[in-house]
Structures are given as structure tokens and as C-alpha cells.
């Protein structure tokens, strides 16, 4: 039987975690990036379809491709972040179904009528798992939607001659160790009765 995590874990993942606007100069090794993905991939998706794809930008060359496509308010913090991730989904995710759902060979065809919707919904779930996983192992995140989506798709995906040509951007996240002096006061949240109904 599963046991609840302790209050410290809840603080790290939710209560004390903040969206970061800046990062301190501290190395973030690739092994931690891989560890975040290894946790992320365990989250559930429809028939294990796993359509999320992640493009990790760490080198100056990679960042230079992205920076002109970021909104002005997001450009500097993206340049400063040790890692930036393009959170994407694969419109060709069905090709992986024989590996991901091997006990039903027909699963590849289940999503013919709602491929794009399935890819976006399930990848969005997975990218939320990613944010939680990153926080759980001690990293800070700066999730953003202020960027030229068509430009990112054209620059990174649509011109690709391999599998990435079917990938499409959803949102972008900076990763590192946050500079606590650059966060804003936490904004209010809706109370249970404002956001929820019990029927």
C-alpha cells in the first residue's frame, strides 16, 4: 500500500516551489537532466502512448537558435538559464505504439480519428510530470508560453528530415537553480469553492 510523501516533499514540489525568472551560476550536469526524464516517463498516458518529446538546449549554438523566437520578456532569462527545454508533442506518436503497447498489435490504429488531440493532451500531461519531477530532484523551473510557436516549429521541427519533423512545440521551460531575488510575490490562487464542484 502506498504511503503519502512527507510535508517536506510537498513543500519542495508545490507549496514553496516558484516559477523562476533568473538562475544562479551553478553547474547542472546532464545526468540530472536524464534523471528528470527517467521519472517523467513513468507517468500515465492513454494506452501508454507517451507522445511528449523534449528538446534540451544547453550549448550556445542551441540557445542562439531559440533566443530570437522568445518574447522580449523571456529572452534574457532564457539566455541565462543553464538549460532550456522545448516541450513538444509528436504527431507521429503512433509509430511507437508497437513498442509501448506490445500486448495489443492493433493499438497503433486506435488514434487515427483523434491523433492531434491525443498527442497534445497526453504530452501536456507528461510535460507537467516533467516539471514535478524536476522540482522533486531539487531543480528550479521557469515555465513559459511567451514565444513564437510557428517560428520554433519551423526552426527546430518542420525542416527536420528525421522523426522530429512530426514534433510540435507546446511550451518552453528553463531549468537550473533559481535566483530567489528575481521571483515575484506569489499570486493568489482560487479557493476550493471557486474552482470545484462536488456533484
Task: Describe the 3D structure.
By secondary structure, the chain is α+β, with helices and mostly antiparallel strands. Helix content is 38%, strand content 15%. Helix 1 (7-15) crosses helix 6 (115-136) and helix 2 (30-40) packs across helix 6 (115-136). The chain is built from eight helices and four strands, in the order H-H-E-H-H-E-H-H-E-H-E-H. The model has no long low-confidence stretch (mean pLDDT 96). Strands 1-2-4-3 form a four-stranded antiparallel sheet, sandwiched between helices. The protein has a single domain (25-180), classed as NADH Oxidase, CATH 3.40.109.10.
Arithmetic mean pLDDT: 96
**Oligomer class:** single chain
Q: What is the overall silhouette?
A: globular
Q: Just name the CATH architecture.
A: 3-Layer(aba) Sandwich
* The CATH class: Alpha Beta
Number of helices: 8
Strand arrangement in the largest pleated sheet: 1-2-4-3
Q: What is the strand and helix layout of this fold?
A:
Layout: H1 7-15, H2 30-40, E1 52-57, H3 60-66, H4 72-80, E2 83-90, H5 97-100, H6 115-136, E3 140-144, H7 149-158, E4 167-176, H8 192-195
Antiparallel strand pairs: 1-2, 2-4, 3-4
Summarize this entry quickly:
With 199 residues, the chain is α+β, with helices and mostly antiparallel strands. It contains 8 helices and 4 strands; from the N terminus they run H-H-E-H-H-E-H-H-E-H-E-H.
Give a quick set of tags describing it.
alpha+beta; single chain; 4 strands; four-stranded antiparallel beta sheet; NADH Oxidase; 199 residues
